[in-house]
Design a protein that fits this description.
The chain is of the alpha/beta class. Helices cover 37% and strands 12% of the residues. The strands form two sheets. It has a five-stranded mixed beta sheet with strand order 1-2-3-4-5, covered by helices on one side. A two-stranded antiparallel sheet has the order 6-7. α1 crosses α3 and α3 crosses α4. It holds the Pfam family CRAL_TRIO.
Length: 289
């Protein structure tokens, strides 16, 4: 079920009403870029409603918690210059090609991750960097999480890391997941993935697909699959910096008045700009339910 314009508008108004009531300001509590996004991006608000099965109260709570999480984790300060460069360049996680639905693949190379060898806080920042970059790349369209488990064993299985990834989709990146493709998973990891399934709601479990070279074509076309997956793409990972546009309008430059449908007091919010790749304010800016 898709939310209509009225429901999106209602969510936006409830958010700014809560902000005004609790903090007396629409521009000081959260990061300005996130306030701009709430104000301007119908698509972002739609994702919260869809993610929460059109329950307005739940959508508002998750939207609020997401903005708080983004502020606390300084998401807009996470970029290629602030994440661990060694982690960035080793290629344990990257975006490459698309699935058959046209969704970008966020690839996790299991054999390049060994539990306990990386600083977990730095690793989380790396993951956020790639989530944010994928969102900017496709303007918030869904992605497919591709676990490349070829040549992996128990030492590559990191339950804490996996749970963190799942929680990002579940709590802070709503309606962002198309599929979870698990490629060539060794039988020795079967028990662990049964536990992982238990962390997911039913509709998310339905997105998990176990694939091999023989059936990957059902989800990823050959020209979009790496040679190591049985495809035709001879890509070798090399980090390429992201090119970002810098919007020239600041949150304080303009304001518009938005009133609630029930006629309650007006609230000042940011102006209406087009949805951003501009859903980040500067070069450093950067579904599960």
């Amino acid at each position: 079920m898709e939310p209509n314009a009225y429901e999106i508008h209602e969510l936006r108004c409830k958010f700014f009403e809560k902000l005004e009531n609790e903090h007396g300001s629409t521009k000081a509590y959260f990061h300005p870029a996130d306030l701009m996004r709430v104000s301007n991006s119908d698509h972002w608000l739609k994702r919260f409603l869809v993610h929460n099965d059109m329950e307005m109260k739940d959508a508002l709570n998750i939207l609020w918690e997401t903005c708080e999480w983004r502020k606390e984790n300084k998401v807009h300060e996470i970029n290629e210059n602030t994440v661990n460069r060694e982690y960035l360049e080793e290629g344990s996680i990257f975006v490459r090609n698309r699935d058959k639905d046209g969704k970008s693949l966020l690839v996790l190379k299991g054999k390049k991750h060994v539990k306990g060898q990386k600083d977990f806080e730095e690793l989380k920042r790396l993951v956020i960097y790639w989530f944010e970059r994928a969102e900017r790349k496709d303007k918030g369209e869904q992605i497919t999480l591709f676990f490349d488990m070829a040549e992996t064993g128990l030492n590559n299985l990191d339950m804490e890391y996996t749970k963190y990834l799942i929680n990002l989709f579940k709590l802070y990146y709503p309606d962002f997941l198309n599929y979870i493709l698990i490629f060539e998973m060794p039988w020795i990891l079967n028990t662990a993935f049964k536990i992982i399934k238990g962390w997911l709601p039913t509709k998310a479990v339905q997105k998990i697909k176990f694939v091999t070279k023989s059936n990957l074509k059902d989800y990823v076309d050959a020209d979009q699959a790496l040679i190591s997956w049985g495809g035709l793409d001879d890509y070798t990972y090399k980090f390429v910096p992201e090119i970002l546009e810098t919007p020239t309008v600041r949150l304080d430059d303009y304001k518009k008045k938005v009133h609630f449908a029930d006629g309650s007091p007006l609230v000042e919010v940011a102006p209406s700009f087009s949805d951003i790749d501009s859903e980040n304010p500067s070069p450093s800016a950067s579904k599960l339910r």
